[in-house]
Amino acid sequence: MSTAQGKLAFSWRYGAVLVLFVLLAMTVVGRLLYLQIESQGFLQDQGDRRVVRIEKIPAYRGIIEDRNGEPLAVSTPVKSIWANPKELIDAQYAWGFLAEKTGYTEARLRDRILRNQNKQFIYLRRHMNPSKAESILSLSIPGVYGVEEHRRYYPAGEVTSHLVGFSNIDEEGQEGIELSFDQYLQGEAGKKRVIKDLRHRIIKDVGLINAPAPGSNITLSIDLRAQYLAYRELLSAVTEYKATSGSAVAIDIKTGEVLALVNHPSYNPNNRTRKDVENFRNRAVTDVFEPGSTVKPFTVAAALESGKWQVHSKLDTSPGYLRVGSKSIRDMANYGVIDLGKVIAKSSNVGASKLALSMESGALSAFFHRIGLGEATGVGFPGESVGMLPARSRWRPIEVATLSYGYGLSVTALQLAQAYAVLGSGGIKRQISLLKVDGDVKGERVLDETVANAVLHMMEGVVDERGTARKARVPGYRVAGKTGTVHKVSSNGYQDHQYLAMFAGVAPVEDPAIALVVVIDDPKGGVYYGGQVAAPVFSRVMAGLLRVKNIPPDKAVETLVGLPKPVPPNT
Asked: For residue 20, what are the contacts with CB-CB under 8 A and spacing of at least 6?
């Protein structure tokens, strides 16, 4: 090949290569322009899918507080440790450390990881102290991550547990106010965009999508100070008399608000490992019992309302018993001819029976129903019992008689407290509330004011030196109340040696402010009358409640000095 031909061939090859490179460059530039202009949105979305995540922002559950703003249930920030077993299985060197920090044995943790090695998520430890959680996360163990959550905390512990209740580990209400107001307390989680690395760690917050909405706060009617002193005194009595349980309920007569509601045995809502399920129920609201002699003031009120009896009317209870059909109704002694006040003060079953039998059939049951016995209070508490009040078209005389002194019907401690609040308010029945009430509460008149006041003054005789409950007296205050002692009922009928000891009353009589009911279940040791067991608890709790409410005394303290020795109570 000549030199000229060689140069021509080289020039042609050079030109072809140059054109090829130009075409390749144009193709690359065109592709880049296409990707930058036409496919920018698609590529950015694909990139975001690999690094940008939507992260949930936990919302605070609403606070439950007492009427003075003292917290009863709050949510605190915590961290939960979780793992991806597919990744963690390759970091066996850290299993021992993780087991120690999360509360597992190494063998148990190993077994859990191996059993879930095909999964991508398991919790290692929920609700850890944030600093302890960070001591784990700071080591960057492959497959171990953290997530922010909230844990419910109950500052008053067992003192308010039956009322406030508790929530589960996911902050869902399980008992008490936590359950009944769960939809109000629950917050709505927020959302944010974050950038995460390949180890699922948040590198940067990109932006907020939705801000978290905290749950609504709930303000209860109870006063934590009153709750503490009522719980302390109830616990002391249950312990002293080796009783099975006890309950106490205090109501603000002028508003219908529950100032204190306690039970024992109780439980610690902060302990999630508890197994004492039997103690979860709020006995003052769920447990029913026959109220016994505590209904005698209402029997007298019904008799006065009937118009057949007057305040100073007399009736003969001799010879201390009354035959009704084949049954005998007995008093503790032969009280002879007594007035209506003595029926209450002496707790005369015979007197109460004669009053009830003198009224029209069904009148006493209708009266009991009107003041709230045997029907739900409407407080909205989960599991509230309605109780039982017979409603018959025809009544047998023995049924009327036993109803008059508290047998044949069943009530809760809360219902009984509401009924006594009706007496204390001069015959006004107000809606019972577990939430704080603002403003005046009108209520409904269910009893003539004159009758209510007359019965209230009769009930003062129960706590004087000749009554059945001198131990219920409160220094400086006039107290009106009534004892009750009933045999417990089981599947085999009434138990001969098991009792409920009760005291219900209001104070101060001059201007009633608080109604209080105390129930002690099955006191042991031979002391079981309401005047012996429940009355002292009533006295101490009522004294504390009156101080908490700043109620001025209506009786000089000196009048309580130098009284004779107490007379042993009858019922």
From this structure: none
Asked about 293 being catalytic, the answer comes back as yes
For 353, 360, 368, 409, the CA distances from 390, given in Å and listed in that order, are 17, 15, 10, 7
Distance CA 168, CA 179 (A): 10
432 vs 429: CA distance, rounded Å: 9
Instruction: With 0.85 as the threshold, say if the pTM is over it.
Output: no
Task: Report the Cα 274 to chain-centroid distance in Å.
Answer: 17
d(CA 571, CA 485): 6
Q: What is the DSSP string of 16-84?
A: HHHHHHHHHHHHHHHHHHIIIIISHHHHHHHHHHHHEEEEEEPPPPPPEE-TTS-EEEEEEEEEEEEE-
Burial class (CB in 10 A: 0-12, 13-18, 19+), 50: exposed
Which whole-number Å values give the CA distances from 102 to 90, 145, 365, 464, in the listed order?
Answer: 19, 13, 61, 63
Please provide residue 389's backbone torsions phi and psi, each rounded to the nearest 5 degrees: -130, 115
Contact 113, 84 (CB under 8 A): no
Q: What number of other Cβ atoms are within 10 A of residue 77's Cβ?
A: 12
Q: DSSP code of 116?
A: T
Query: What span, in angstroms and rounded, lies between the C-alpha atoms of 547 and 529?
Result: 28
Between residues 161 and 30, the one the model is more confident about: 161
Residue 45 has pLDDT above 80, yes or no: no
Helix (H) or strand (E) holding 209: strand 202-210
Letter string b/e over residues 497-525, b meaning 16 or more CB atoms within 10 A of that residue's CB: ebbbbbbbbbbbbeebbbbbbbbbbbbee
- Residue in 180, 221, 293, 347 annotated catalytic: 293
Residue 398, token pair as written in the block: 């023995």
511 and 453 Cβ atoms separated by less than 8 Å: no
Q: Which two tokens stand for residue 150?
A: 């909230």
Distant-in-sequence, close-in-space partners of 323: CB < 8 Å, separation ≥ 6? 329
Do the bridges between strand 444-445 and strand 428-429 make them parallel or antiparallel, or are there none, so unpaired?
antiparallel
pLDDT band of residue 276 (cuts 50, 70, 90) is: confident
DSSP letter at 559? G
Contact 104, 97 (CB under 8 A): no
Residue with tokens 């193709």: 27
User: 67: how many CB neighbours lie within 10 A of its CB?
Assistant: 18
**Predicted pLDDT at 24:** 82
Task: For strands 64-65 and 218-219, give the pairing.
Answer: parallel
